[in-house]
Write a structure and sequence with these properties.
- The chain has 265 residues and is mostly beta strands.
- It is built from one helix and 20 strands.
- The longest helix has 17 residues.
- The protein is elongated, with a radius of gyration of 29 Å.
- The chain folds into three domains: 85 residues; 86 residues, Immunoglobulins (Immunoglobulin-like, Sandwich); 59 residues.
Length: 265
Amino acid sequence: MRLLRIPLVLGLFAISLAGRAGVIVVEGNYQGKNLFVQNPFSEAGVGFCVYEVTVNDQVATDEINSNAFEIDMANFGLKVGDKVVVKIMHKDGCTPQVLNPEVLKPKSTFDIVKQQVTPDGLFHWTTTNETGELPFMVEQKRWNKWVKVGEVMGKGTPGENSYEFKVTPHSGENTFRVRQTDMTKKARFSQSVTYTDPSVAAITWSPAKPKDVITFSGNTLYEIYDQFGNIVKRGYANSVDVSTLKKDLYYLNYDNKMGETFIKR
């Protein structure tokens, strides 16, 4: 009789595993809000789909035996900005739905404590009140627009965080800022900060009617536009190959100059 019971026990164990086969994982940063879960009936029609919820590997004590329930994040001693991993274990043949996963997405909430560009060209900024890891885009004002020149990953913690980025100045006065964009797609900016490097000389270029190459007097960021406003070349160098451009009139931005023209021959 004992030999006959073994496959029966193994069979029940396999059924139990098959009935608890799914896990939904939601990750992010705590933003002070709770998650809401839509919880269908199990495939067998007896009981609900979800059988366990954990937050950072701690079992949630919320009532989950209903067609919709709330995961109370305040029960886990979280601070705004803390990393969160929510696991929703559910039975096979049904799928619960997290109705508002966006509440764990990081938001841009930083405040600038101080910022400066040091004489050696390092852009320093210190923040507070970050609530999630989001990149800071370093932007430089060039040619009457803001141009992205670098990126530094934010630390996402609410205390003071310090960052730095090596800038590449043009001649004359330079203007920099940092930008951050979260899931709302609305950008937040720091105040701008100015910097002048007296060792950076003004850039010149030639020839006015190039056939193959435009040469700059030093390394510089540049953009070349056609007459329809399309960028056809951009980069950072002391020369640019224009041999593949068709014969036409073009506009050149470089250093801190803009809108200069040349004719490709």
